[in-house]
Amino acid sequence: ALCGSLSWRGDKVHMVLRLVDTNGGHHVWIGRETSTGAALRELSDTVTDRLVANAAEAIRIAEYHELLGGPDGEHDAWGNFQRGLHHFLNYSPEDKIAGEVALNRAIVQDPGLAPAFAYLALIHLSAAKMSDSAWQAKSEVRAALRYGHQAMRLDERDEHAAAYALAYSFAGRHEEAVRHGRRGAYLNPAEGSIVYAQAMTLFYAGAYETAVPIFERIIEVNAEDPLYFLFHEGLAEAQYGLGNYTAAFDAARRSLALKGGMIPAELLLTASSAHLGLRDVAYDTIRATTGQPRDLAGRVFGHIRDRASYFRQIRDDLHQADIPL
């Protein structure tokens, strides 16, 4: 059920909307907006946009939290798919393993479940991005391409299947990646993770100026998305590619504030800080987001900086090579 309230403070009106699970009575989404009384029409349009962008995702999150209650063996294919999606959205190495197990159960139970194949592809892509081994990264991309092709073969109209276009980017096949990414965003323009995939295909193709406003729009309308930290990280990458180091630094800090310990965001933060003379701020951000004391954070900073060239080498290898299946 959707409920809400309006309140006035001086010349400003405050609106609060709540999406409530009528079975359990808990809130699955809360949206807040403030505007002047003279701009109520614009406020209404903004609230409608945010509701459309976030309500479907909030309902899905509530659904898979409900499905997490029982043992793995009690779930059908759709239940295991939701469990896999839950672990994917948690975005950690441990969740990568648990998500892969749940999604593999789902495709054994239902070999025609295209979204399960698509998210298996995305799990392998996230593993490739976090890998510190070129061999392992390429192996993960190959797996992503296999699962992604199967998702598209089963249902080329499925918007989640289109999100695996990122695999083409990692393999250096940018024209295909951009084409599929654009199609996925067209099929479901309200889902942040899918539009993020489109923006990343543009980033990897070197279209930084085109990618930046897409990232900014995702961030504006998808604040409740579990992958919100990733949208800021993507914006940081595109801004860094344009040489906008202050904007890249700020976006990387916001990403790490939302989810600490993410290596790509830490690399972007440290690389940007080198251009801006903000090394101490980078130290403090790493310390705050990893929970490590300052002296250890300094060593982590150096370790990440040393790894930056290695990660770039891995990424360049992946992009320049047309990796065979």
Q: How is this fold's topology laid out?
A:
Blueprint: E1 2-9, E2 12-20, E3 27-36, H1 40-67, H2 77-90, H3 93-109, H4 114-130, H5 134-154, H6 159-163, H7 166-170, H8 174-187, H9 192-204, H10 208-221, H11 228-242, H12 245-258, H13 263-276, H14 279-290, H15 294-320
Antiparallel strand pairs: 1-2, 2-3
Helix pairs in contact: 1-2, 2-3, 2-4, 3-4, 4-5, 5-15, 8-9, 9-10, 9-11, 10-11, 11-12, 11-13, 12-13, 13-14, 13-15, 14-15
The gyration radius over C-alpha positions equals: 21 Å
The strand line-up of the biggest sheet is 1-2-3
Total number of beta strands: 3
Low-pLDDT parts are: none
Q: Look at the helices and sheets and give the structural class.
A: mainly alpha
What's the story with the biggest beta sheet?
3 strands, antiparallel
Q: Helix count, per DSSP?
A: 15
Mean pLDDT: 76
Morphology? globular
Instruction: Give the DSSP E fraction (strand runs of 2 or more residues).
Output: 5-15%
Instruction: State the order of secondary-structure elements, H for helix, E for strand.
Output: EEEHHHHHHHHHHHHHHH
Instruction: Report the end-to-end length measured between terminal Cα atoms.
Output: 47 Å
The protein's oligomeric status is: single chain
The percentage helix is: over 70%
